[in-house]
Design a protein that fits this description.
489 residues
Length: 489
């Protein structure tokens, strides 16, 4: 029996007719129709398999049988809201808290990463009594109005929109391309001092800091790994100003970094955020998320007198699924797998850096790895079009990878946690061939010398996975001069 209800063309036509035009689709000129998935593989309507290197939502693997079974069994018994007593809610909260520092002990269950981050802002505003928020360059925290305001990744696309006067943007702690780089004697302090300067400027204008929010590792910003010690110093400055530190773990939590369960723990055991938000992998594709905070912050939120209620947050089915995800992570040692396979993948990619002038930087932790492509290693000229060509060529080889970062030139590895060394071998082997072909066509050689007869101008620039075409390092939508960004996953 076919898993396809309509032929692909009809599905696409109906999507264009009934789905909002701003809801972009991967590989828009030739989209993939996925009808089934298992583990780290997705399957189209012709039963062609694709190796999924993108999906940090299907954390323990697509359609994991233990997770599916847990949800189905609980759905047969009961699903209702959290105003009724139910063991799943408290058992799951207890299990989740056990993975965190003791201070982070109070949970609020919600339904998406966006909803979690929006609630985190409410908690911060109420606890501090202040209004101003500090965020990072290229940050993305969600799609609701309050979060677009603190997501430069999104609001920088709005050429005619004014930035919220209560939102302040600090430099991304990027030691490869940022203001303070790896050769700086103390980049952590230098970047933290930038936050301190923002706080001082806010105070001079009569404002007060409610919170600093950061993804523990910036994903949409280009797989940025903050220098160790940065969060501690930022937290000290922010808390001194009466604010709180919010760690956004929506994309990078639940063991993905390998060495730790939470990415903020990479900064050291002496760092504990005031609020942690989580989503995406928490339910392996089931819509659920959570905010965890301290007792002090939670009691301040209660002092408003306003009840907090969420119809679906923490329902018995969601909690059963959440528990199953935690069980699978432990049972299959997926955090350990992320560490082992992530190191193996990173080592393979480092060898590619030695071989390919287009590879400027390899960075990451566990199964969260970025490959930044550049045309010139000394000038760090972004290889934006080349990154998109790699993505399209990999798609032709039935491998799904994405690119992100402010210049759309960082290849992002964030696959399901069941990803294997064989998978890593396959992807890197294909990338090797594609990069070799690209460099030959462009006349690029190591050391970074460019053939005067550069073929770049003769090559047709590729479009990105959402149908945008590249010109001079900018993404331009056909028929528009406005800078755009690809899909967020």
């Amino acid at each position: 029996m076919s898993l396809e209800r309509f032929e692909k063309k009809k599905t696409l036509d109906l999507r264009k007719k009934h789905i909002g035009p701003s809801c972009k689709i991967f590989f828009s000129h030739d989209p993939i129709k996925i009808v089934q998935a298992k583990g780290q593989y997705m399957y189209d309507e012709k039963e062609q398999s694709y190796l999924d290197c993108i999906n940090n939502v299907a954390h323990v693997g697509h359609c994991h049988p233990d997770v599916v079974k847990a949800g189905a069994q609980q759905m047969e018994l009961l699903n209702t809201n959290s105003r009724f007593l139910h063991d799943n809610l408290v058992v799951y909260a207890q299990r989740l808290q056990a993975t965190l520092p003791e201070k982070l002990s109070v949970c609020y269950f919600v339904n998406s990463g966006s909803e979690a981050n929006d609630l985190a802002l409410r908690l911060a505003w109420q606890y501090s009594g202040h209004k101003d928020i500090i965020t990072l360059e290229n940050a993305y925290h969600g799609h609701v109005s309050s979060l677009i305001d603190i997501s430069p990744y999104k609001f920088h696309q709005l050429s005619d929109a004014e930035q919220n006067q209560f939102v302040h943007v600090a430099p991304s702690p990027d030691v490869y391309r940022g203001k303070y780089r790896a050769d700086h004697p103390d980049p952590a302090t230098a970047y933290a001092d930038e936050v301190k300067d923002i706080i001082n400027k806010v105070h001079k204008k009569g404002g007060k800091i409610a919170a600093f929010i950061a993804e523990s590792l910036q994903s949409c910003g280009g797989q940025v790994i903050p220098p160790v010690g940065y969060f501690q110093q930022v937290a000290e400055h922010v808390r001194k100003a009466g604010g709180v530190f919010i760690a956004d773990e929506v994309q990078v939590g639940f063991g993905r970094v390998g060495t730790h369960f939470w990415a903020f723990q990479l900064q050291g055991e002496d760092f504990v955020p005031d609020i942690v938000t989580m989503g995406k992998p928490i339910g392996n594709g089931h819509p659920m998320s959570c905010v965890v905070t301290t007792r002090e912050v939670a009691e301040a939120f209660m002092s408003t007198g306003m009840e907090y209620f969420n119809t679906f947050g923490g329902n018995p089915v969601s909690c059963a699924i959440g528990l199953a995800v935690l069980d699978v992570i432990v049972k299959e040692d997926l955090q350990g797998n992320a560490l082992r396979v992530g190191r193996y993948l990173t080592n393979l990619l480092e060898k590619q850096k030695e071989k390919h002038p287009l590879v400027g930087d390899i960075r990451g932790c566990g199964l969260f790895v970025g490959v930044e492509l550049v045309r010139d290693r000394s000038k760090l000229t972004p290889a934006t079009a080349e990154a998109q060509e790699v993505i399209y060529k990999l798609k032709q080889q039935h491998i799904l990878l994405s690119a992100d970062g402010p210049h759309r030139n960082v290849l992002k590895f964030k696959p399901p946690m069941c990803f294997t060394t064989d998978d890593a071998d396959l992807v890197v082997e294909k990338m090797d061939h594609i990069l070799t072909e690209l460099e030959e066509a462009l006349g690029l050689k190591l050391p970074n010398t460019v053939n005067p007869e550069n073929e770049c101008s003769k090559r047709k620039l590729p479009t990105d996975e959402n149908g945008h075409q590249y010109h001079s390092g900018l993404v331009q939508s056909r028929g528009s001069s406005q800078q755009t960004k690809p899909l967020t996953t």
